[in-house]
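look at this one:
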Amino acid sequence: MSSKNNADISVMMLVPFLPPLPVGGAEMQALKLAESLAQKGIIISFIMPGKPDVKGMIRIAGMPVYRLHSWMNALHTWLSAYKKKKQPSAIRIEYDDSKELTNQITRKVGWPTVIYYNIFFLRALLFLWRRRKSFDIIHAHTMEWSVIVSVRLGRILEKPVIIKDSTMNGFQSLSRFPSGRKLQNMIMANAYFVAMTKIIHNNLLLTGVPEERIFDIPNGIVVGSETLPSVRGRKPAKVLFVGNLYQQPAKGVDILLHAWRIVHAQFPDAVLQIIGDGVVPDYKYFTDRLQISDVVNFLGKQSDLSRYYTEADVFVLPSRREGMSNALMEAMLNGVPCIATDISGSQDLILNNVNGILVPPGNPTLLAEGISYLLSNPDIAQALAERGRETILRDFNIQKVADKYISMYTKILKKESPGITH
């Protein structure tokens, strides 16, 4: 295929969900990226499964979003409900890092999910077959069932497929699917990959993905040049965490709460603010056991985080696994002193003791020491925060990230995709 101008490149993005349905960081990152790409002339469309009350085509920021729903989805709904009734999910907060694998998803994928994405694949194939001349690339944004669907579509429609690995062990986790190794081989042979961190890049290489199929592009964030107001330094001190509480053990909330018990002994008036969806009563019971419930505020999901970033004295990300945290990027952009675990994504954003602090994952004592250090040394914390903001402005502006994607699209479309089998 010959070289194309931006306006001639059309990308079909495949995601599990978009608003108004609940979405995660990977989906929101895809949406922000798509908006920036569209501003630069790339033609963007989205395709995703629909639901009985959320189906058909809508536009988000002017981009068409096709939500495909089939009456056969009712079968998946029934099977999922039956499975949950037979095996109700227990809310678990605490994990033992010395005995459990906590940095990778290991739960086997059940047949209801397999049926679900195969139904969507057939529906998407019929939908896209009629439109196959209207787009050039299929771009999947999560290393889940969506990549299986994307690669199958790409093979039949003869379109290059790009997969963004949105978590540090995403490709390895595909082994959880039935015939997982065969699926990995199929995907490896028929796709290009976006690695947003060094660890993800190396993990892809270790699984056999050729170097020339991997593009290093980080997450991005919408930035502004305004001077940030600050009300930090007021008493009591506020430490902020933002993340989905349902994503345990990934988010390390149990580690954070154990660490906060240590911090509380030194800073008895300091308050930990926890923002994110979750079963709050179970977490409150956990903080009661730790005798810190009076200094931990569970604030649920918040649509506007700006006030919390402005008031936070420290932002903490205790994750056991990440891709590249949107919340950490937002905190750094907002000039909040940040401490995070030394894992994929965080170590690509933070240089220890230069623009933030990194501590080993799964260690409440060292996490507590880092938090206490920042609370005890406000001048040092402020200097780290200023350099953290500079890092985001310089390297992670979504507009610069979009330029890297355009370069990747152009490079892929210029050649005949050597080594890719259809």
Q: What stands out?
A: Residues 164 and 194 are 5 Å apart (CA to CA). The mean pLDDT is 89.
